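Action item from last meeting closed. Structure (336 res):
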């Protein structure tokens, strides 16, 4: 998040499994017809060079295929007039477990002017679909350092991995979907101010930390549409990490109209019995928040929750959050 509100922590966590078992789909090992090809025998050697070769004026759908490998670069996708799909090579498109493509770098706000410019992928174009790519920011503890900066409407991320420490995913504006993906971090690692974001069938891996926060939604008024829903997902310590019981909170309010729901989600005991936390003792920001839960399970779902949170009597539907036409742009095959 912004430097003035940064809150630095230390780390820890045990393994996160895929939240649901899907019938494996065919692998994707060669470029779909018409796609620009990166790596392997493709024309482009870097992801950014393929992105730069896209037409900025065409309204016809475009696509990029990335061959297996690790690409050490920062990628910026500027606004396009067309839809864009970016595919990563994988042995199984149904989740992130067969991914073979990683884009990685280590920028942070130590060396960039704002959150967005630290991101491994800066996604500024609407009508974007990204499949089976690992996005990693290696900066680690000590500064805001994004894996993804999502700054446009109708973006979907399917079978992806997002790894960082502080501020891993910036869901900033527009409607977005994250499905069958893995998200890792310690401090406010799903955050943003105006986006509507639906997280479905995701594994949230928390890192070793004395205290940590999964979400920090920055909704600042009743008219701000921002809304995060984490649906049918799992929360546990990240692989190779050890996390103390109760070290993590589901969220804290970056702004006082913060709105987040966790529903039908399995939570290990890494989640504190209070569930939710004030921004800080002298500045709680809880007077207008909507923090709610429905039908969560596991040790982390138990206990006396914070007084400013509530239990719902029914699950929130995707259409409530994303609109009744969400299937026109979401790959619904990845939803629960």
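Sequence:
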């Amino acid at each position: 998040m912004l430097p003035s509100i940064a809150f630095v922590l230390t780390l820890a966590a045990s393994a996160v499994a895929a939240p649901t078992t899907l019938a494996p789909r065919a692998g994707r090992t060669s470029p779909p017809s018409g796609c620009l090809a990166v790596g392997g025998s493709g024309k482009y050697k870097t992801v950014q060079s393929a992105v730069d070769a896209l037409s900025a004026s065409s309204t016809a759908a475009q696509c990029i295929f990335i061959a297996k490998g690790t690409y050490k670069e920062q990628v910026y996708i500027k606004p396009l007039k067309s839809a864009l799909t970016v595919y990563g090579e994988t042995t199984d498109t149904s989740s992130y477990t067969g991914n073979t493509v990683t884009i990685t770098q280590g920028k942070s706000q130590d060396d960039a002017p704002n959150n967005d410019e630290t991101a491994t992928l800066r996604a500024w174009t609407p009508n974007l679909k990204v499949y089976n790519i690992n996005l990693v920011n290696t900066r680690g503890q000590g500064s805001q350092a994004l894996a993804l900066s999502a700054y446009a409407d109708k973006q979907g991320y399917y079978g992806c991995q997002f790894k960082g420490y502080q501020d891993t995913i910036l869901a900033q504006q527009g409607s977005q979907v994250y499905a069958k993906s893995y998200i890792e971090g310690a401090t406010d690692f799903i955050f943003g101010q105006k986006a509507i974001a639906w997280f479905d069938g995701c594994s949230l891996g928390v890192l070793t930390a004395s205290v940590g926060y999964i979400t920090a939604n920055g909704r600042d008024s009743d008219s701000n549409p921002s809304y995060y829903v984490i649906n049918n997902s799992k929360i546990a310590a990240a692989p190779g990490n050890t996390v103390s019981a109760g070290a993590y909170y589901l969220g804290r309010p970056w702004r006082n109209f913060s709105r987040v729901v966790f529903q039908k989600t399995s939570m290990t005991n890494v989640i504190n019995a209070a569930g939710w936390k004030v921004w800080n003792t002298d500045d709680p920001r809880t007077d207008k928040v909507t923090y709610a839960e429905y039908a969560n399970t596991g040790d982390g779902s138990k206990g006396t929750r914070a007084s400013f949170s509530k239990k719902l009597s029914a699950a929130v539907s995707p259409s409530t959050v994303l609109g009744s036409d969400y299937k026109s742009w979401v790959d619904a095959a990845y939803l629960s």
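Note appended to the action item: Residues 13-316 form a domain with the Pectate Lyase C-like fold (CATH 2.160.20.10).
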